[in-house]
Amino acid sequence: MTVQSYQGDLKAFEAFFQKLDNNLTWDDIDADIAREWIVSMMDKGNKATSTQRRLSALKSCFRFLHKKGIVQRNPIRNVTAPKGERTLPVFVRESDMQRLLDSEDAFTNDFIGIRDRLIIETFYETGIRAAELIAINVEDVKTSAMTLCVRGKGNKQRIVPFGERLLHLIYIYIGERARRNNIKTEALFVTKKGERMYYSIVREVVTQKLALVTDQKKRSPHVLRHTFATTMLNHEAGLEAVKELLGHEKLSTTEIYTHTTFEELKKAYHNAHPRA
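Now predict its structure.
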């Protein structure tokens, strides 16, 4: 926070309480006045983030005044700002993903092209994180059970299932991988030099391939994680099941995707209903 913005926030608060009552001074401020200020800012259309910043400036001011003995108490110590709005996850439409994965021109037939296709398909079919994909070793792929053993946040392991299509691609890729004589790692996904994949390479693969079917600005591996979750819920998967597949600790983290699917329903309604 800059000095100018700090001063501006405090002056804005002073102007607010003096407008309430010209006789009010900083010594008269209490929690109710601070809350009224918050409400007034929200009523004017201020975002939660800017309101939080202004309240933070006010709290810092009162902490300083109280520490110096200028005021006898800190009246707004327990005043809380509104929570910031949670932005909806960005995802790729199911039709666009199908168009990409069904394309004969999106991926080459050499080792790199097969690897890149498997990367995209793995993200889309399992919803794992980029770090989890990079950490997968060949032994973590259980073809008979059609599962991946992935290491998530806090090095926690979870088992993620996959389908016949991905199994077929894995067999093809592992066969091509075995024919290369420069592999220096047990990692499943490797670079041209035979080393474990880097995040920058994975991100570049995802960005370039998604650019073939969408012009949205966000085209990261995490967008494919969002896409997986949204697709699962759109096809009536249970929220608890999606939570476990994604490796979320709290159901509230997964619930953000229900808002995404509801937004899609609203769009479909407005596009289809003649009276909408």
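The first helix runs from residue 3 to 20.
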